[in-house]
Amino acid sequence: MLSIVYRGVGPRIAYERRIASLTQADLARTADVSLGTIRKVERGERGVSEVVLGAIADALDIEPTRLLPGRERPDDRVHQAMPGLAAVLAEYEEPEDGPCRGLPALRDAVSTVVAQRLSAQYVRIARSAPGLLAELCRALSTASTSDRPEMARLLVDACRAADAVAFKLGAKDLSARLLDLMRWAGSQVDDPIVSATVAYVRTELHFGAQTHAMGLRALERALDRAPRTDSAEALAARGALHMRAAVLAGRAGDDAAADGHLDDARALGDRVPENIYQGTAFGPDSVRVHEVSVAVSLGDTHLDRALQLAREWKPPRNLPAERRSGFYIELGRAQLWAGRPDAAFESLKVARRIAPQHAREHRWVKEDAATLRRLKRADAASLSNFAEWCHAGAGV
To answer: N or C: which end of the chain has fewer CB within 10 A?
Structure first.
């Protein structure tokens, strides 16, 4: 059978490559395509086969149709994963028979999707999450007594990765069902740190419903049950709960509670090195990121605090990409509200460079890009292209 050859894709490939902050050599290496081919394609001197188009799209973490002129559709593979995830959720307590890898292989698979979540690689998660969740549910149903707690922990972590995709894309019902599966799995592990992690993630329900005061109360109850030992994992579990409680308090307009939880998070952050604990980044740098988030949530007179912190400090590269990108999204909103649209646009572009899929799907990015577009009608290509890239105005 003859392979289709697509032409005219060079400018689209070059555009997406730059958004992903890749050189031509980077793209060639990741896609396993010769550098000469990449150069010729981008210059329009040759077309690409289906195989090469797919390899380049995979290297860029985008849907191949995005590279075809006039046929752009955002992250189709992510949306196509939703029915598969829904099917897993319909039968997790009594899963159908099927193949199951051993515990070491499942550990590696879950470690991979956790890393993808932290770096906001939603397309890759969407590709593997339905099959991985189904396999973990089967493995948990047949696990020995000794292996069952670890298998349940792995299912918690995989659910969290899948939920990151559903939540970011606004699939609220699916996200809520994934969180229920996560809670069910967590209940099978007699580990207060896992329970604290589940409580941390489940507050997404309150962010989505804008029931911030209710979410704050839920986290404060979780803090009452959180482990009180001095291990790094226990300190980080409590610190993460305080960080998220501070943001919820900020969204609820409760200045005193926000400040109190930030103080507690800061004190705990000073006792542990910045690291990933049970899938959550915590430490002094993560607390600083949340200081900006709280200031933006409180708004008005608190914005100066966000702007001052950003002048004095930038998130280091060892922080997860999703968290660094979030910092610049929050900063961009503070700058926009402070009457600094040019600085706000620069911050949004930095957020995009760090984690393109995270920035593209973030509601605030869409809102702020649409606002910037209205404020700066005379601005030409870059702002318009950015607004189109993130579908500013869509779903806002």
So the answer is: N
Q: What is the pTM of this model?
A: 0.80
Residues 51, 100 share a domain: no
State the Cα–Cα distance between residues 233 and 64, nearest whole angstrom.
Answer: 41
Asked if 116 and 124 touch (Cβ cutoff 8 Å), the reply is yes
Return the number of other C-beta atoms located less than 10 Å from residue 76's C-beta.
15
| Cα–Cα distance, 55 to 29 (Å, whole number) | 11
Q: Which domain holds residue 25?
A: 5-67
Q: Which of 42, 67, 92 is the last residue of a domain?
A: 67
Q: Which of 283, 313, 343 is the last residue of a domain?
A: 313
